[in-house]
């Protein structure tokens, strides 16, 4: 195996400091020399971010990160929690904070390894070339949804909020829910781009990643629901030492913070 880069050794040093000597459950495996390939099982909200961070993984950590994505919602068969429960291999798990905590409680994620990475807001989008509605206030957002002939929303966490809380809070559930379509297996923006829905609602980072749509904006604060995404080391990780370095990099790197901000995600860990 070729010699590890200086950058990777530095990352491992800070990983040790950052985790404070925890991760006792992974100590035996961590004693092995780490591979330079790390598997990441992550929420779809960070798929575009991952692609943009790949050059930094190689340059700063000397790592290849093999990623696959799914919903954070356990009720979705292809979600991150369900796949981990079925025994899918991963070194790092990056999903909603609540889902990660449940996985840790099940013994599938090392509890002491959990680190908050980013916060995601909800937003709306329309097909490119369509009029852009005003949604700065709750009243304006309600009016835009009432005017729309069709609305697409995600089957993940944002969709649960839309179905069970948001429309009720706006008092437009009876008028809007019947013309709303729950989307599984693809991004909401793709449905809007094909003209199959006039308005789409999803995590901002997922909307911004789709060509053929115009991002309207974030929901107003009175309607907003933020999701915190956290990363942790899988209890069955084959490369826990490199996994630690990757998590610290995601939480601390200025380059990561810039990429997150460009994609509508807010870094949440202190610098």
From TrEMBL:
Keywords for the protein's UniProt record, in alphabetical order: Signal
GO molecular function: molybdate ion binding
InterPro entries tied to this protein: ModA/WtpA (IPR050682)
GO biological process, one term: molybdate ion transport
Superkingdom of the source species: Bacteria
Signal peptide boundaries: 1-25
Name the UniProt record assigns to this protein: Extracellular solute-binding protein, family 1 protein
Species name: Achromobacter xylosoxidans (strain A8)
Lineage of producing organism: Bacteria, Pseudomonadati, Pseudomonadota, Betaproteobacteria, Burkholderiales
């Amino acid at each position: 195996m070729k010699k590890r880069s200086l950058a990777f050794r530095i990352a491992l040093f800070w990983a040790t400091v950052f985790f404070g000597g925890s991760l006792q459950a992974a100590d035996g495996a961590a004693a092995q020399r780490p591979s330079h390939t790390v598997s990441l099982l992550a929420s779809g909200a960070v798929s575009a971010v991952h692609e943009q961070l790949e050059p930094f993984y190689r340059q700063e950590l000397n790592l290849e990160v093999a990623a696959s994505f799914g919903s954070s919602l356990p009720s979705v068969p292809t979600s991150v929690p369900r796949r981990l429960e079925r025994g899918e291999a991963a070194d790092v798990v990056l999903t909603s904070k609540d889902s990660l905590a449940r996985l840790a409680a099940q013994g599938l994620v090392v509890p002491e390894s959990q680190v908050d990475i980013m916060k995601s807001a909800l937003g709306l989008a329309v097909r490119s070339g369509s009029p852009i509605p005003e949604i700065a206030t709750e009243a304006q957002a309600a009016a835009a949804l009432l005017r729309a002939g069709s609305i697409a929303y995600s089957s993940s966490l944002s969709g649960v909020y839309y179905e069970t809380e948001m429309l009720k809070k706006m008092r437009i559930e009876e008028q809007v829910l019947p013309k709303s379509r729950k989307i599984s297996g693809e991004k909401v923006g793709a449905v809007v781009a094909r003209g199959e829905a006039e308005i789409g609602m999803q995590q901002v980072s997922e909307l911004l990643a789709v060509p053929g749509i115009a991002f309207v904006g974030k929901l107003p604060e009175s309607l907003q629901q933020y999701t915190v995404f956290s990363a942790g080391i899988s209890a069955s990780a084959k490369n826990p030492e490199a996994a630690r370095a990757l998590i610290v990099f995601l939480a601390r790197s200025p380059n990561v913070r810039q990429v997150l901000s460009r994609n509508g995600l807010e870094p949440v860990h202190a610098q």
